[in-house]
Amino acid sequence: MNLTLLQDAAAADEPLSVGEAQQYLRLRPGDDEITLSALITATRLLAEEANGRQCSKKQWRLALDRWPNTQNVFTYPYSSQYTDPVLFQFQVGPSFIELLDPLISVDAVRYKTSDGTVITAVEDTDYVVDLDKHPGVICPPYGKTWPSPSQGLWPSSAVQIDFTCGFTPENVPVSIKQGMLLLVSQMYEQRVPFDDIRSVAEIPFGVTALFNVGKIWRF
């Protein structure tokens, strides 16, 4: 089964403000705001990739060629005009579709039949949302299965799921924010995300350790 994940909109708010970064770096208000804004976004993307959770609130669209009916694990990229591509791994089983963490809401579930008719599924009738799982999932209600149109499904991206996920700035774990501040400081002062005097060029362990606190593990 082919899957595509598309970020519908840019992050609503970054976990760190430019003012917080300026204060941490002991800069004056107004100093290097454009540079710091770019560094904050870059470090947030690194934190999300390392931690497995979305550190800012965003809207997404997940497209599947069909409803799941086998237990498989797929790795696939999302495309976005706002960020560089990153690979995420999702588990799709016979009774659930796993989304990103932390899941806030499932905004729409639609599927297209072979004749091009788009049908909007109804929450709690055609599917249920489980926000208690991490990551959150959608699945058919008790005693039901995913819709199986007699006329078949559209051949590509027949199922589309719009959802919102991510931490708001005040809810971002302190470990992630501290790791971001450390990395922003490193990238701002050294102009690279590692010490240039080291023989191995890698992000400092202190940063990766902070990013890994509360990590969503996938097997």
Give an overview in words.
The protein is α+β, with helices and mostly antiparallel strands and about 220 residues long. It has two domains: about 5-55 and about 170-210, Hypothetical protein yqbg (Orthogonal Bundle); about 60-165, no CATH class. Helices cover about 25% and strands about 25% of the residues. The protein has helices at about 20-25, 35-50, 175-190, 205-210; strands at about 5, 60-65, 70-80, 85-90, 95-100, 105-110, 120, 130, 135-140, 160-165. Strands 4-3-1-2-10-6-7 form a seven-stranded mixed β-sheet, with no helix packed on it. It has a three-stranded antiparallel β-sheet with strand order 5-9-8, with no helix packed on it. A hairpin with a 6-residue loop joins β3 and β4. α3 packs antiparallel against α4. The longest helix has 19 residues, at about 35-50. The mean pLDDT is about 80.
Write a compact overview of the structure shown:
With 219 residues, the chain is α+β, with helices and mostly antiparallel strands. 23% of the residues lie in helices and 25% in strands.
Question: Could you name the key traits of this structure?
Answer:
219 residues; alpha+beta; Hypothetical protein yqbg; 2 domains; seven-stranded mixed beta sheet; three-stranded antiparallel beta sheet; 23% helix; 25% strand
